[in-house]
């Protein structure tokens, strides 16, 4: 762009210089010269502005694409951990400010390592996608599903009380079991879920940690359980 402006300015200046010199030698009309010069300058500026706007539009589109990539898990297509933290932090701020209910759930696939060991990681990724798609179909538009890490998923559910998130978690467990995905141990793939709701003073870390501890208690209870904390 700077090179274009420099070249355009040089060309414009040269043309005006030539016109001035020619009209001066011939006793020409300088009013005509000024109009021609102004028209040339305006034309160049309009072209430069149009080109600049086009380049800005391209850059905005690229930045938007980069933001989507930076916030999305590449395997499942849902929010990644970074985006989940941002979303939960925003919901927590609103829930604290207006004293509104907010729930989170941590879901961990039971015996998922056995699936990877039996069928390979590529198959494991496809299983994870199937589970995510099934869960997405059950969630509300205001809920956020994220891949928290490995085979662990996080659900952020605004305007949701403890009894509601518990009912939802039980429904999700049945949904995953009904997929009938073999773990190679004569048991279908299941999911353990830990749920919690916002309490005064919560931040992202304390809320997710509480749900995570509840999930491990569900694992300890024999897997395929929901535990609230």
Topology:
Elements: H1 2-26, H2 30-71, H3 81-98, E1 102-110, H4 112-119, H5 121-138, E2 144-149, E3 152-158, H6 162-178, E4 190-197, H7 204-220, E5 226-228
Parallel strand pairs: 4-5
Antiparallel strand pairs: 1-3, 1-4, 2-3
Helix pairs in contact: 1-2, 4-5
Query: What's the tally of helices?
Result: 7
Beta-strand segment tally: 5
Return the domain count: 2
Mean pLDDT: 84
Instruction: Determine the N-to-C terminus distance.
Output: 59 Å
The CATH architecture assignment of the largest domain turns out to be: 2-Layer Sandwich
Structure in words:
The chain has 229 residues and is of the alpha+beta class. It folds into two domains: 70 residues; 148 residues, Alpha-Beta Plaits (2-Layer Sandwich). It is 63% helix and 14% strand. A five-stranded mixed β-sheet has the order 2-3-1-4-5, with helices on both faces. β2 and β3 form a beta hairpin. α1 packs antiparallel against α2 and α4 crosses α5. The chain starts with a helix and ends with a strand.
């Amino acid at each position: 762009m700077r090179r274009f402006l420099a070249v355009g300015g040089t060309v414009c200046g040269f043309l005006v210089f030539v016109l001035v010199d020619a009209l001066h030698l011939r006793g020409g009309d300088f009013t005509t010269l000024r109009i021609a010069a102004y028209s040339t300058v305006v034309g160049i500026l309009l072209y430069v502005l149009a080109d600049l706007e086009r380049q800005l539009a391209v850059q905005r589109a690229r930045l938007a694409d980069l933001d989507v990539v930076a916030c999305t898990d590449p395997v499942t297509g849902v929010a990644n951990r970074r985006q989940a933290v941002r979303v939960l932090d925003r919901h927590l701020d609103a829930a604290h400010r207006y004293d509104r209910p907010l729930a989170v759930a941590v879901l961990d696939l039971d015996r998922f390592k056995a699936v990877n060991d039996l069928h390979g990681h590529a198959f494991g990724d496809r299983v994870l996608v199937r589970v995510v798609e099934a869960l997405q179909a059950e969630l509300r538009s205001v809920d956020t599903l994220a891949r928290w890490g490995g085979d662990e998923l996080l659900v952020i559910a605004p305007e949701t009380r403890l009894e509601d998130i518990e009912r939802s978690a039980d429904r999700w467990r049945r949904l995953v079991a009904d997929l009938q995905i073999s773990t190679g141990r004569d048991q279908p793939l299941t999911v353990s879920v830990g749920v919690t709701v916002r309490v005064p003073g919560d931040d992202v870390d304390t809320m997710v940690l509480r749900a995570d501890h509840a999930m491990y208690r569900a694992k300890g209870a024999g897997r395929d359980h929901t535990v609230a904390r």
